Amino acid sequence: MRLAALALLVAGWALTLWIAPWSDERVNDLFVYRSFAEPLLEGALPYRDSAFEYPPLAAPLIALPGVFGTGEDSFRWAFAIWTLIGAGAVVLLCGALARATGGEPRRAMFAVALMPLLCGALVRTHFDVFPVAILLGGLLLLCRDRPRAGLAVLGLGAMTKLFPLVAVPVALTWLVARGRRREAWQGALACAATIAVVVLAAVAASPDGAADAVRYHLDRPVQIESSPAMVVLGLDAVGAGDAVSVSSHRSDGLLHDAAGAVSALFAGVLVGLVALLAARVGRTPRELVLASLAGVMAFALFGKVLSPQFVIWVLPLGALAFAWRSYALAAVIGAAALLTQIEFPAHYFDVVEREPLALALVAIRNAALLAALVLALRELQPRRQEQLFDRRRTPLAVRLD
To answer: In a designed cystine with 28, which of 125, 369, 389, 391 is the match (CB 3.0 to 4.6 A)?
Structure first.
């Protein structure tokens, strides 16, 4: 079963290398990664000797393929193999999480193995499979009653790419709901200590460089595919200010007088949704995983950047929903991935040029992610889940009485 799922993944990877439209990589991050990898492999430190926009633990994941050469072709092939290994870990972890949450492992593994077919070349030209794998590993440790290790791993994920951090409040609330307050605060300390060690190492390397990395994201304009950008473009369309296109921070964004307020509003919505997910999570492992991955989807949907590769973050939830027979949720996430592939990269420059049909495609994709988030919230029914949880723990004789 595992080998068959991995074989399907490898076949999909081959599609992204040789068969159009899946092989379309006219827009990718490989040049950016190569420009980071080369000085790092020569002994330079991120933040101190070269500007680095990612959290510290992203550096080794980006640089490692450069061991086999930082030329364009050699790095492309090495990075493809490296991300295939990461994607294989995602497949196996989805199977393990399905088993731990009462789903069918085979369904989860085969569903997530379709990620190259759903996403195309972006799965191998971005490093996002690695923080996804770290997130899933942390959740699996929590499901297996290793909360301190699980929360420490989530801290590692946050220091690789920030989004795994949204799973932490959900995990802590889940532990408290199970009556494990001591493990909750110990796990919180383990997560905080993990993050602190990594952050202090970055600051020690270069306080100014580390601060510049934070300012880089704070100063970044709303990215044109993001939900705040859709609102800004709507304001422009009705004559409420001008949305000015700008190319900066390695992406295409929009400047508008209301952009800061809109971004802050969406950030507030994100915080409120994560709090709602934490409040609704009950005691079952499935609720932990569902609420955590829904929080990750909210992070992508309501942030001021929604790069196409962010769809990789939500695919495990779709695969697990399929394993849990939550077919509507799985289908909507699959549709969001397909819409992203249709838009990127073939029509990305139409989006940048603000062609109405291309923008409508992005808006529909974002609406699909919103629909998936609503469905995930509806799936979180703590009372019913807790009744099932209690029923499994209660001896049969007691239930018959």
So the answer is: 125
Residue 353 inside a domain? The answer is yes
pLDDT value of residue 389: 47
Q: Which tens digits make up the pLDDT trace of 269-308? A: 999 999 999 999 989 999 999 999 999 999 999 999 999 9
| Domain of residue 144, residue span | 2-387
How far apart CA 148 and CA 325 sit, in angstroms, is 30
What confidence score (pLDDT) does residue 401 get? Answer: 38
Q: Which residues pair with 246 in a beta bridge?
A: 253
Identify whether 197 is part of a domain: yes
Rounded distance between C-alpha atoms, residue 35 and residue 52, angstroms: 10
